Amino acid sequence: MSEMELRPGLADVPVAESAISFIDGKRARLEYRGIAAETLAKESSFEETTWLLLKGDLPTQKELAEFNHDLRSRRKLKYKLIDLIKSLPENGHPMDALQSSVSALGMFYPSRDVGNYANNWEATLRLTASLPTLVAAFSRIRNGDEAIEPREDLDHAANFYYMMFGKEPSAATRKVLDACLILHAEHNMNASTFTARVTGSTLANPYSVVSAAVGSLSGPLHGGANEEVLGMLDAIGTKANVQSWLENAIATKAKIMGFGHRVYKVKDPRATVLQELAENMFAETGRPAKYEVAIELERVANGLLGPKGIYPNVDFFSGVVYQSLGIPTDLFTPIFAVARVAGWLAHWLEQLKNNRIYRPEQVFVGKTNVDYIPLEKRP
Ligand code: CMC
């Protein structure tokens, strides 16, 4: 690569050394600290996986017990923060509410000395523990309900569900939500994680780091795609419409939401696990019509887009799963954030260990040496 060659989207340009997660995009392999994400989704818990991402190894029993305790005791929000959430427009997007409230959270727990590991660990615990409470609080308050206080006797996934719906999940629902959180927890140098690292590299406080990452995740080309997928499946309507809908979309160069990935040129391994979860759920209840449309879309797309290496990504089946859990569509991306905060924070801590501020170059294509014309001499 010549010194000033532009690589749009930084494709194939390494921007950091990282030991957190590994992707083999040709062999559909995703590992967190060396352990397959699929295995963690089946065997682990979100809390254990978060420790693994943050610290590098699985926790001992004692470490996990302490970590659980530390998270559970930091879930509750200050009443002023609840008041702030109450003042947000109820028809605003929950990702915007999350970005604002994460930023405000940092004002209650100032954490500007990022040279101090104890401070940083405290902020890591606070952010991981608080995001579900912030998401659940906005989701209730916007409907005119009171926010539900977190319960320390429930684990991360069960408590999140409880705070959203006011009832405990069944064991099967808890497991599905926990697995979804694990599968979304980390994915190396995606846009929001890179945002977190860039923001962290300025030595900004961790609440700003996470708030910036939430903003980045909200876009439809990134985390926002899961929400778009359901709209797309609705627009297609029936299995019979899939072929003509897809042909038309390809002819008009529309992006098929939930398909394609910068790194995976095969089906995203997370999509495969999410589909398994969906199949298990539907074994008892029967497949919803929307899932049938999704399956047909994948089948037809395999023929039309597969040759270009475009296959379902993580967002393709997650929406169908969340909808079956009764979760409103506009909370899909906030749930992604509740999970991905683990990866963002792991990358932030890693960035600080060997920090240099991000300051890339540009390829200048503008004018130079232009004379200033006083206003009165301009038309
Ligand atoms: N539907 C139709 N064509 C596609 C798609 C798609 N979903 N994705 C890529 N392509 C085509 C694209 O039109 C281009 O074709 P051509 O070479 O003929 O111009 C080629 O594939 C390369 O596409 P690209 O946009 O340059 O690829 P990228 O690596 O820059 O973008 C992506 C990756 C994920 C943004 C893109 O695939 C996309 O927009 N997908 C739909 C949105 C989506 O599902 N996003 C979630 C991503 S996974 C979770 C996450 O990271 O948040």
From TrEMBL:
One GO term in the molecular function aspect is:
citrate synthase activity
A Pfam family this protein belongs to?
Citrate_synt
What does the record give as its pathway?
Answer: Carbohydrate metabolism; tricarboxylic acid cycle; isocitrate from oxaloacetate: step 1/2
A Gene Ontology annotation in the biological process aspect, one of them, is: tricarboxylic acid cycle
Active site annotation, chain numbering: 261, 315
Does this UniProt record's set of keywords contain Transferase? yes
State the superkingdom.
Bacteria
- List keywords of the entry alphabetically: Transferase, Tricarboxylic acid cycle
The record's catalysed reaction(s) read:
oxaloacetate + acetyl-CoA + H2O = citrate + CoA + H(+)
Query: What family is it from?
Result: Belongs to the citrate synthase family.
NCBIfam families noted in UniProt = cit_synth_II, PRK14036.1
PANTHER family recorded = CITRATE SYNTHASE, CITRATE SYNTHASE, PEROXISOMAL
Q: Report the protein name in the record.
A: Citrate synthase
Q: What is the species of this protein?
A: Tuwongella immobilis
